[in-house]
Structures are given as C-alpha cells and as structure tokens.
Amino acid sequence: MLYFYIKIFHILSFVAWMAMLFYLPRLFVYHSEHKDNKGFCDIVKIQQKKLFNFIGYPAIICTLLSGIGMIALEPTLLKGSGWLHAKILVVALLVAYHFNLYRYMVALREDRDTHTGKFFRILNEFPSIALIVITILVILKPF
Known about the structure:
Strand content: under 5%
Number of helices: 5
Helix content: over 70%
Low-confidence stretches: none
Radius of gyration: 17 Å
Largest sheet: none
Shape: elongated
Order of helices and strands: HHHHH
Mean pLDDT: 96
C-alpha cells in the first residue's frame, strides 16, 4: 500500500514541477520582450525567482525522491521494463532542462541575456514533448 501512496505523491510532485517548467520560460518571453521597461522586468525577476525556488526546487526534489522510492519498493520494475529506462532518460533530460532554465534566469536577472522572445517560445516546447513521451511510456508500457 505504501507504494501507491508514494505513487500519488510522485504524480502530484510531477504536476507541480511541470507547471514550473511550463511557466518559467513564458516569464522569460515577457522579460526578453520588455527589456526596456525596468519596472516590469523587476517584477518579472521576482516572479521568476519565486517560481523557481518555491515551486521548482521542492517539486523536482519530491518528484525524484518519490520516483526513487517507488523503484526501491518495487525493484522488479527495472527488470525487463525498457519503458521505465526510457522514462528515466526523459526525466534526466528534464532535470538538465530545469537547471538550464536556472542559467537563463540568472542571465536575465543580471541583464546579460540576449535571447529573443521567439527563442524562449521554442525552448518552452521541450517540456510539452517530454510530457507526451512520459505519458505514452507510462500508460502503454510499449516495451
């Protein structure tokens, strides 16, 4: 029964983490498109920092720990289940994306980022693709 409670926590944590991964690049779009408006950018910088620190970090930590917890309770999941290995790979890419967003946030905060709103719009597509792939892997368990 503990496994299912951890699984519920994992799903809720993942949803919170994905919310941050979807919204932070959108804030980057606003920031990059309004660089000439200092007052606006100052507010967006605060929003970015709070979103990353108070939602992003706790959510990524809870997602990863609960995922590890489920595997620890059911180690047979790793045996012959290529879908889980594929999911872990996509999650590793999301973790890299998460910390890459941090790099952009710091550069924007220090007013040294030169990327356009279009760049951040395109960047914002990665979590959508990752979510689709993870959902397919978890539901269909294709291999």
